[in-house]
Structures are given as structure tokens and as C-alpha cells.
Amino acid sequence: MRVFALLALLLISLTVNAQHEYAPLEEKTVNYKNWTLKALDTDEQINLRDWAKGKKLVLVVYYAPWCRNWHLEAPVLARLYEKYKDKGFDVIAVNEYGSVEQAQEYFESIGGHSYKVVVESTDMGSRDKTSHFVYRQAVGDRRNWGSPFNVFLIPELMPLEGELLAEKAWIVAGELVEEEVDEFIRSKLKVE
Q: From CA 133, how far away is CA 146, in angstroms rounded?
């Protein structure tokens, strides 16, 4: 019984003392490429270029479903998405390093998601083989797993064909700073 009580206290302590991993929004050379990935909840294949057409600003957020920093960022992302989705902003989340079941369980635990979610990798052994890892290395993100990793793209600046979507993009290599990103989104959408 004592061991259980000590473990419960440790778990509570870890939860209460969860450290944010905020990062600044910076324009970086990333050579961001188009992709087609399977949707989390369906068999639909989502092509990023096609999905982004007609939108003013999109955020591609790479996350691991088990990552505490993603769990801390997710409510911020949901607020920003709801606030600006009718003004041309959209979000697509890319599952990394966790199974489809882990991702589905995570989203069920927070009441679902209203933005698209796709899957790039499903296990920790894939880390060095993902485009997520390549982009993180390109911008100097040295975190072990790099979740969350946020990439903002302007669809009207994307070439109509070819693999490359953007040479430079706005990156947050960590958790979004809500006020900073809110101001950035407003400026890109030209919203007062």
C-alpha cells in the first residue's frame, strides 16, 4: 500500500511539475516537400498540396501521441484553430512515433479533434527515417523526439507542381507561444 501511495504521489508531482517547452516562431530554410499520408481515422490519402488549396495559412504540426509537451500544446492549437478556421487558417497534425491506437486514444481522451490528422510513423524505431526528423535537423532542433514541431506554410506561395512546397517556412521547434502565434496568424490572414 505504501508503494502505491508513493507512486501516486510521484505521478502527481510529475504531472503538476510538467515543464513547458516553448519555442519562438522563426523563419527558417527547411526545403519543405509535398507528401501524401493516410488519415488517422479513415483510409483517405491526404496530399498536402491538394489539401492546402484555397487556404490562406496552414499549420502542419508533427506530434507524438504520448508526448507531454504535445499534450500541453494541443489545447492552444485547438483554440487557435477554432478562432481562425473561418478566416482561411487550417491545421493538419502528423502522428509520429506512436501507434494509430495510441493516437486515437489520445484524441478520444480530449474529446476528439476538428482538424485533419494523418500518420507518418507509428513506432519509435522510425525516428531517424521520417521527414519530421529531416526537417528538425535542417533547422537545428536537437530535441530527442521533437514533439511538437510546427511548420506554417502559405499555400498561395507554393508552386503548382514539383516536390518542393517551400524553401523557407515559419517554424516553432517546440510548443507554440500562444500570443506570439496568434499575432502571426492575424497578420498573415490580415485580420484586425
A: 8
The SS3 call for residue 133 is helix
Q: Could you give the angle at which helices 68-84 and 178-189 cross, rounded to 10 degrees?
A: 30
Contact 74, 176 (CB under 8 A): no
Rounded to whole angstroms, the Cα distance separating 178 from 171 reads 14
Strands 149-153 and 164-172: antiparallel
58: Cβ–Cβ under 8 A, 6 or more apart, which residues?
Answer: 51, 52, 89, 90, 91, 92, 152, 153, 154, 155
Binning the chain into helix, strand and coil, the percentages to the nearest 5 are 40, 25, 35
Per residue in 24-36, pLDDT tens? 999 999 999 999 9
| Second-level CATH architecture of 21-189 | 3-Layer(aba) Sandwich (3.40)
- Taking the C-alpha atoms of residue 121 and residue 115, their distance in angstroms, rounded to an integer, is 19
pLDDT in tens, 95-109: 999 999 999 999 999
* Dist CA 176 CA 21 (whole Å): 9
